[in-house]
Specification:
alpha/beta, binds nicotinamide-adenine-dinucleotide, 7-stranded mixed β-sheet
Length: about 475
């Protein structure tokens, strides 16, 4: 396969290589270096923000129809080059290329098309005389320059989630993809440079502590949007506190999965084989902590283990793989550390998997751990790997309490045949999303985002347009 990389960032009208430190970009299937990419220097970060600030003066006065047209053009360009984007992402992240082509790419294209349409349909309360002799009206105006920081687990998709609602509403943006996975964002940069006016969308690369923190702290950045770890979210809040920038935080998750005793266990296990292990579990919504009612617990463990054993992950013919490796050697060590500490306890049992895969590449065996207790480290902390725990509960109240006793609040699910009962449980869960008899699925029209330490930013849907705008009141004396 001969893939073309773009190693140049987009700053204003200029496609240019970074003038900062070189970063190795690895292929996680075998640990080899794909390419070296130099990160943005301080001067380049500064110039990217200046370009966005300058472009804001005109972009913020364009009509929704004008913005929409360019977003649609970008969606078409991505669709035309779908195979290149999918192959590049697959190379950089180790994702099976079939999954990229069939799952992520259509969702990415749809995100641009959705916001292209949605920005033309924003509505507010009617203008009127709420005080005698005065007319009040509302405006939803762009905020200014958005500094956006993306993670490595869905690199292009997260960049799409950041760019589309921000520019659709008249903001300009400087985006920094993860230093580990910049390749698809840079390919997009090239495409953007021939579609959008200079400075509306700028893409720079580099490490979080260096390039990321300079970007979010920049005095001309008006809003900061991050998808990343809770710890990074806290750091960014500290960095922006002195300037009171608006923040949009989409942080980690540790999704509880409550299996009621009338659930269809076979269907449940088949579903968790996908929803717990998709993207090798490197997903903030992964169905990773299962609570199974006492009288079905053994069957849940057994059926889940049987299904999980069939997950294909390091076949040389990539079309046969369900999942790929972990993103890095560091992530592989991290996941392994959680599992080894669980093994060392005397109450948990690794029912299937449980080890790093020997050989090249950062693979980890799809793993099921039974006998986990609510306060175990592996139940409480985000593992971000192909590891699912099962915990036995006695009463539904207990399951709800254990599910909710988490610092995270992104997503959750309930499984059962009695829909009234399942809905009752869902209504008691404190997570941004609760699925019933499914998990993981997103719709572009519906908001995605969390509560508690999973953050408060809403991506996708009309609610993202609200997040990327400021509500203003205009009052006119009659
Ligand atoms: P991370 O927080 O380590 O890195 C995310 C981004 O933040 C990277 O681009 C990184 O360079 C940057 N960064 C790091 N430190 C920074 C700093 N001090 N200032 C500015 N930028 C900084 O996260 P990750 O390891 O890339 O991604 C995995 C995490 O992302 C997981 O916790 C996962 O749950 C979360 N995530 C959440 C969602 C969601 O929708 N809630 C979606 C995907 C991933």
């Amino acid at each position: 396969m001969s893939l073309q990389y773009n190693t140049k960032m987009l700053i204003g009208a200029s496609l240019e290589v970074g003038a900062g430190q070189e970063e190795m970009i690895y292929n996680p299937r075998n640990g080899s270096v794909i390419v070296k990419i130099a990160e943005a220097s301080n001067e380049q970060v500064d110039r990217a923000v200046e370009a966005a600030s300058h472009a804001f003066q005109t972009w913020s006065h364009t009509t929704p129809a004008e913005r929409s047209l360019l977003l649609l053009k970008l969606a078409d360009a991505i669709e035309r080059n779908l195979v290149d984007y999918a192959s590049l992402e697959s190379l950089n992240c180790g994702k099976p290329s079939e999954r990229m082509r069939q799952d992520e790419m259509p969702a990415i294209i749809d995100c641009f098309r959705f916001f292209a349409g949605a920005c033309r349909t924003m509505i507010a309360s009617p203008a009127g005389e709420y005080l005698q002799g005065y007319t009040s009206m509302l405006r939803r105006d762009p905020i200014g320059v958005v500094g956006s920081i993306a993670p490595w687990n869905y690199p292009l998709q997260m960049v799409a989630w950041k760019i589309a609602p921000a520019v659709a509403t008249g903001n300009t943006i400087v985006v920094k993809p993860s230093e580990q996975t910049p390749l698809t964002a840079l390919l997009l940069a090239k495409e953007i440079s021939s579609i959008f006016p200079p400075g509306v969308i700028n893409i720079i690369t580099g490490r979080g502590e260096q390039v990321g923190s300079q970007l979010v702290s920049h005095p001309k950045v008006d809003m900061v949007s991050l998808t990343g770890d809770v710890h990074t979210g806290k750091k960014i809040l500290q960095l922006v506190s002195s300037t009171i920038k608006k923040t949009h935080l989409e942080l980690g998750g540790k999704a509880p999965v409550i299996v009621l005793d009338d659930a269809d266990i076979s269907q449940f296990a088949e579903s968790i084989k996908t929803f717990g292990y998709y993207n090798s579990g490197q997903d903030c919504t992964a169905a990773c902590r299962i609570y199974a009612q006492k009288n079905i617990y053994k069957q849940v463990v057994q059926e889940l283990a049987t299904k999980v054993k069939t997950i294909q992950y390091n076949k040389s013919d990539d079309s046969k793989n369900d999942i790929g490796p972990l993103i890095s050697a560091k992530q592989q060590e991290r996941v392994s550390g959680f599992v080894e500490r669980a093994k060392a306890s005397n109450h948990m049992e690794v029912v299937t998997g449980g080890s790093k895969v020997q050989g090249t590449g950062y693979y980890f065996e799809p793993t099921v751990i039974a006998g986990a207790l609510p306060n175990d480290e592996i139940v409480k902390r985000e593992v971000f790997g192909p590891v699912v725990t099962v915990t036995e509960y006695e009463t539904v109240e207990q399951a709800i309490q254990w599910a909710n006793q988490s610092e995270y609040g992104l997503s959750s699910s309930v499984w059962g045949s009695d829909i009234g009962k399942a809905l009752f449980v869902a209504s008691r869960l404190r997570f941004g999303c609760s699925w019933v008899n499914t998990h993981f699925l997103l719709a572009t029209e519906m908001p995605h985002g969390g509560m508690k330490q999973s953050g408060y930013g809403k991506d996708l849907s009309m609610y993202a347009l609200e997040d990327y705008t400021v509500l203003r009141h205009i009052m006119i004396k009659l």
